[in-house]
Amino acid sequence: MENKQRVSVIGGGLAGCEAAWQLASAGFPVTIYEMKPLKYTPAHHYKGLSELVCSNSLKADRLASAAGLLKAEMERLGSLLIPCAREVSVAAGGALAVDREKFSDMVTEKITSHPLITVCSEEVCEIPDSPVIIASGPLTADSLARSIEEKCGSRLSFFDAAAPIVTYESLDTDIVFYASRYDRGDADYINCPMNKEEYLAFYQALISAERAPLSEFDKEIFRVYEGCMPIEVLASRGEDTMRFGPLKPVGLTDPRTGRRPYAVVQLRRENSEGTLFNLVGFQTNLKFPEQKRVFSMIPGLANADFMRYGVMHRNSFLDSPRLLNADYSLRTEPLTFFAGQITGVEGYIESAASGILAGVNMARKLSGKAPLILPRDTMMGALSSYISDEGIKEFQPMGCNMGILPELPERIRDKKLKYQAYADRALQSLENYLTSQEG
Questions:
Q1: Domain of 251: which CATH number?
Q2: Whether residues 13 and 155 fall in one domain
Q3: 314 phi and psi, to 5 degrees?
């Protein structure tokens, strides 16, 4: 058997374990560097690999859902974690949820018993020589974060203050309108006009809505980044503060009335295709059901499909569209890969999926093969396309959702049937692509 080059994987979380498993399955020796149990982040407590730090749920398991589709694609590509999760699952309705400790223990046993994988318990303070996959997670330790910043030209964020994202097709186009202020430049923004009565009702609902609790380390990072003020905090400082901030109506005319609105919520394109839009200035710490309730009061958003709710928490992530290829490799260093939440994918299974592709593509690159760039109509392909899309100017992390997939050729009004059609198309496209690569 030929001697294959050893690959370093930094981080023993979901992405790191999936990446290591793919490499070892391809015959490459791997060293996973995991700082636990010598050192823990504020969120980690269990000694094992692939620890689930927040929820124990891996989201919906039905195929006609974004998360269910993503898991099906991962299993087709030889995921380590999804079969483990199924073995230690607990009752959770239509979701795949796990016993956290049993899940971590099973993954740890499979990783440590693989003859080609070595787990080294030490903190990595500087990026080692290539080939390396960096899967250090959203709470990357300070010393390694500085090393990543040096390599990536300071394109590393430490706080995720993301606004909600809605689909274009769910907007009420009889109410919203395209325009830029004073008609300067292209009409890139979608505007949701409010009269005084609508604004005051929205204001009252917003300041009284229930907020999500912040952890102590999130409170600390929030104090540092006060410029990323939640919209509900801004609103609580006075009835008109939003109208002099992100909801200012100056330079805009409502085509329905021919007059300037009392207030305007603007939506900005989130992806190149224009299928997703974010609510400008609406970073928020409201609980998700409250976001749905309150933000649906905005004229034009009554029936909006929210593909992502706003979040505010500590989260180390790269400005990936400027740095990474769709195979998760660094553009300037082809044998340095990133995986997991540090790439800007958001969530457990999204992180694990990126680890699969990083591991597969590192193995292919070391073997002299072309990378696997999955079709954009697959969920894994859409996520990798999103994080590497240079057309995204203000990058924020993204989880799996049907809104990032290319639109279907036919319009299907029933959401269940539409999502099933997305899933059927994705799995067929994935199978066709993998078959062509094997051939």
A1: 2.40.30.260
A2: yes
A3: -65, 130
Of 290, 307, 341, 339, which Cα lies nearest the Cα of 18?
Answer: 339
The residue among 396, 422, 426, 405 whose CA lies nearest residue 167 is 405
Q: What is the mean pLDDT of residues 279-307?
A: 93
Mean of the per-residue pLDDT values of the chain: 89
Report yes or no: 97 and 58 within 8 Å, Cβ to Cβ: yes
Strand partners, 118: 31
The residue count of the chain comes to 439
376-390 tens-digit pLDDT: 999 999 999 999 999
DSSP assignments along 245-305, one per residue:
TTT--TT--BTTTTB--SEEEEEEE-STTS-EEEETT----B-HHHHHHHHTTSTT-TT--
Categorize the per-residue pLDDT at 225 as very low, low, confident or very high, splitting at 50, 70 and 90.
very low
Domain count, the chain: 2
Distance from C-alpha of 127 to C-alpha of 142, rounded to nearest angstrom:
13
Which residue carries 């693989």 as its tokens?
A: 114
Can you say whether residue 78 is alpha, beta or left, with left for phi > 0 and alpha for psi between -120 and 50 degrees?
A: left
HSE of 323, CA atoms in CB hemisphere, 13 A: 23
Alpha carbon 380 to its chain's center: 12
**Position 174 in a domain:** yes
Instruction: Say if CB 108 and CB 87 are below 8 A apart.
Output: no
Asked if residue 2 is part of any domain, the answer here is no
- Provide the CATH number for the domain around residue 329: 3.50.50.60
* Residue 275 lies in domain: 165-309
- Using a pLDDT cut of 90, give the percent of the chain over it: 61
In a domain, 1, yes or no: no
How many Cβ atoms from other residues are within 10 Å of residue 142's Cβ?
A: 10
In this structure, the answer to whether residues 29 and 149 fall within a common structural domain is: yes
Q: What is the C-alpha to C-alpha distance for residues 327 and 336, in angstroms, rounded to an integer?
A: 11
Q: CA separation (Å) from 100 to 46, 53, 90? A: 9, 9, 10
324 lies in the same domain as 186: no
Q: Looking at the structure, do residues 22 and 118 belong to the same domain, yes or no?
A: yes
pLDDT, tens digit, for every residue of 312-371? 767 788 999 999 999 999 999 999 999 999 999 988 999 999 999 999 999 999 999 999
